Amino acid sequence: MSEFEKIGLQPWLAKQCSYMALDSPTPIQQKCIPVILGSSETEPTHVIGQAATGSGKTAAFALPILQTLSSDMYGVFALVLTPSRELAYQIVDQFVAFGAPLRPRCMLAIGGVRHEDQVDALRNRPHIVVATPGRLMHLFRVFPRETLPAFSHLRFLVLDEADRLSEGDITTDVRSILQTLPPAQPFRQSLLFSATMNAELTDFDAKGEEGEENILTQLGIKPSSLQRFSVASESAIEPFQRSVPEDSKTQISFPDTLEQHYVFIPNMVKLPNLTAALRAGGKEQTTIVFVNSALRAEIVRLALQLLGFPVSSLDSLLTQQQRLDHLALFKLSLSRVLVCTDIASRGLDIPDVDVVIHYDIPKEATTYVHRVGRTARAGKSGKSIAFVTEYDISLIQRIEKKIKVKLTQWKEKALREERIVKILEEVSAAKVQAKQQVTEQYQNRVETRKSQAAEKKQKRATGIKRSRPDSQPNEQTTKKNTKLKKKKTV
C-alpha cells in the first residue's frame, strides 16, 4: 500500500501521484485529505489549511475533490476561486494532470476571454470551474439564467489564497458570489487554503474591512463543523476556537534552507546595485526581483535588458498572453531574471528560484512571506535579499518584528561603493532610455487605470454610505438640497 493510499486515496489516484513523481504526501496533505474525504451529508466538515508556499496546498484539495467526483460525475461539482489568472491556469493544470484517468471537464472563468464562450462552457456543465471573482460575478450579473443553474448542486467551494480573497477590493466580488450562489443541495464543503491567515479567517467574531459579516459565517460554516490545520504548528484545532490570541493570528514559518538578508542601499543607486548583484550571481542563477508598481517593473525590466540580461517581467500592464509567455520563458530558463509585482508572489509554480530580491520593500509582512516563498522550495536552498533604503528602515523593522526573524546583513563584494561607481554611467544611461520608452508606451494605460481605480473606490464608498440604515439626511442637508433644486428650476 502506497503512502497516499494510507491517507485514504484510491489506488488509481495514488498511482497518478506516483506518475507525477510524488512518492508521499506532504504534511498539509496528510492532515487535510483524510478529513475532506471523511465528510458526510449528516456531518459536513469544512477545512482551513495553512502552509508555506510550495507545500502542496493545491493537491491537498484537488486530490480529494477528484476522488469524490469519481463516484458521481456531474457538473458543476467544484468551484475554485483564486485571485489571479496565472493561479487559475495552474490550478486547472493540476486538476487535469491528477485527474487524467477521469478526464474531468475543467473550465476557466477569467478575464481576457469572450463572455459568450464562457457561458457556452457553463451550459455544458463542466465538472470543475476555476475562476477569478471579478469575472465570475460579472457572468452571474449579466447572464444569470444561463450561469447560476449550473451551480445548483455544487459539492465543493474552494477559496485558494483565502487571505487575499477576504481583503481589499477583491473581497467585494467574493462576498457577492457567496450571496448569489444557489443554496447548497444537499450539502457543500468549503475548503480554504493559504500561506498566511488574517483575523477574519481565524476568529468568527471578526468582521470584514467595511464591517461586513464574517466571511466564514457567509460560507455557512459553524465553529463546530470547521477544522483548521497548520503545518507551522503541526496541530489541528478541533473544534475551531471562537477567540484566537493576537500573536497566533498569523503563524509564519520558513524552511531551514532559506537565508534571509538585507543590504542598505541609498535610494538613488538601487538599480546599479541590482545590476551588480545580478552580475555577481552569474549566468546560471535564477532570480525574481520584486517591485511595488507595474510601471517600475517595466522600467527595471527594460533597463536590465538594455544592460544585457536575459530578463522578463510579470505585471498588470502586460496582456494576459504576454504574461503567460514571459512566465514560460522564465520557467524554461530562457530568461534568468523575472522582474515582477506581487502578482507572482502567491502560489505560482516557479521551480528552482535561487534568489529573491526585494527591490522595493513590501508594505505588509504577509507580502514579504509570500515573496520569499518563491525560493527554498522542496528542500532546496534559497536566498532572500531586501534592498533597504533610507526610507525603508522602519518598514523592514516592522516586518522583522512580525515574522520574528532578524535579517542578516548581506556582505557582497560586488556591492562595494568603489565598484558601484564604475558602473554608474552605464546603468544610468540604460535607466533613462528605459524610463522614456516605458513612459511613452504605458503612461496612458497607467493614468486610465488610476482613474478607474479612484472611480471604483468612490462608488464603493458611496454604496456603503447609502446602505447604512442610520444614514438619514439631516435638516441642514435637506435645506441644501432644496436650494440646489430651486437653482436648477430657475
Automatic annotation (TrEMBL):
Region of interest (Disordered), ranges: 443-490
CDD domains tied to this protein: SF2_C_DEAD
Motif Q motif, residue range(s) on this chain: 2-30
Any one cellular-component term (Gene Ontology): cytosol
InterPro entries noted in UniProt: DEAD/DEAH_box_helicase_dom, DEAD_box_RNA_helicase, Helicase_ATP-bd, Helicase_C-like, P-loop_NTPase, RNA-helicase_DEAD-box_CS, RNA_helicase_DEAD_Q_motif
Lineage: superkingdom: Eukaryota
Keywords: ATP-binding, Helicase, Hydrolase, Initiation factor, Nucleotide-binding, Protein biosynthesis
GO MF term list: ATP binding; hydrolase activity; nucleic acid binding; RNA helicase activity; translation initiation factor activity
Pfam families: DEAD, Helicase_C
UniProt feature, compositional bias: Basic and acidic residues: 446-456
Residue ranges constituting the DEAD-box RNA helicase Q domain according to the UniProt record: 2-30
Ranges of biased composition (kind: Basic residues): 457-466, 480-490
Record domain Helicase C-terminal: where: 257-421
Annotated ranges, domain Helicase ATP-binding: 38-215
Alphabetized PANTHER family for the sequence: ATP-DEPENDENT RNA HELICASE, ATP-DEPENDENT RNA HELICASE RHLE-RELATED
Function recorded in the entry: ATP-dependent RNA helicase which is a subunit of the eIF4F complex involved in cap recognition and is required for mRNA binding to ribosome. In the current model of translation initiation, eIF4A unwinds RNA secondary structures in the 5'-UTR of mRNAs which is necessary to allow efficient binding of the small ribosomal subunit, and subsequent scanning for the initiator codon.
Subunit structure: eIF4F is a multi-subunit complex, the composition of which varies with external and internal environmental conditions. It is composed of at least EIF4A, EIF4E and EIF4G.
Family indicated by similarity: Belongs to the DEAD box helicase family. eIF4A subfamily.
Protein's recorded name: Probable eukaryotic initiation factor 4A
